[in-house]
Amino acid sequence: MHLTEVYQIYPTERECIIFLEKMRWDGLPRCPYCKSHRSTFLTKEGRHHCNGCNVSYSVTVGTVFHRTHLPLQKWFLAASLIIGNEQDIPIRQLACDLQVAKNTASYIFARISRALYRSDQRQLLQDISCRTSDLIVLAIEQRTETTTWQTWQR
Questions:
Q1: pLDDT number for residue 92
Q2: Residue 54: φ, ψ to 5°
Q3: What is the DSSP letter of 38?
Q4: What range does the domain containing 109 cover?
Q5: Residue 46 belongs to a domain
Q6: Are 1 and 80 spatial neighbours (Cβ–Cβ below 8 Å)?
Q7: Buried b / exposed e across 125-134, counting CB within 10 Å, b at 16+?
Q8: Is 43 a member of any domain?
Q9: Could you tell me what percentage of the chain is helix, strand and coil, using 3-state DSSP and rounding each to the nearest 5?
Q10: The predicted structure's pLDDT at residue 30
Q11: How far apart, in Å, are the Cα atoms of 13 and each of 16, 54, 58, 116?
Q12: What value does the CA radius of gyration of the chain take, rounded to a whole number of Å?
């Protein structure tokens, strides 16, 4: 699995946010602070504003992705690589796959590993890992079928 394949599945940060909103809220935003469903979407910021407690929030609040500067695509790939491997992935290999520094990869690994102990976070990360892996397998199968068909036509 490569970063380029994840970027094909989730080409923009917005695509990742839409996926997270569907997984966490099922289309109905919920304030993580007061649990209210009364919110307004702030288009310019890409966040929601709670009309109950007057706080703005995003879908990443309360998740492993909160307060990070890395693109969500890299987090999604990291979750797939860490959860998908039966053995622990070496930090240097994770850094190479994500195209980040070794210390950043170590931080990501530690944060995801810690999050796996929380049931809500574990479920979210497993859903991301399964969805990403399934879509990559489909993309590879489609690419293989196209290549086989083109070879056969020649």
A1: 95
A2: 65, 35
A3: -
A4: 3-25+68-153
A5: no
A6: yes
A7: bebbbebbee
A8: no
A9: 60, 5, 35
A10: 92
A11: 5, 25, 13, 23
A12: 18
DSSP result, 82-145: HHH-SSPPPHHHHHHHHTS-HHHHHHHHHHHHHHTTSHHHHHHHHHHHHHHHHHHHHHHHHHHH
Q: Determine which helix (DSSP H) or strand (DSSP E) holds 9, and give its type and residue range.
A: helix 3-9
Q: Is residue 38 part of a domain?
A: no
> Which of 43, 79, 46, 45 shows the shortest CA–CA distance to 63?
79
pTM of this structure = 0.79
Three-class secondary structure of residue 4 per DSSP: helix
Per-residue pLDDT tens listing for the chain (154 residues): 566 777 788 888 888 898 899 989 988 999 999 999 999 999 888 899 999 999 999 999 999 999 988 999 999 989 888 887 778 889 999 999 899 999 999 999 999 999 989 988 888 888 888 877 666 555 556 655 554 444 444 4
CB-CB contact of 1 with 98 (8 Å): no
Q: How many domains does the chain have?
A: 1
- The answer to the question of residue 30 being in a domain is no
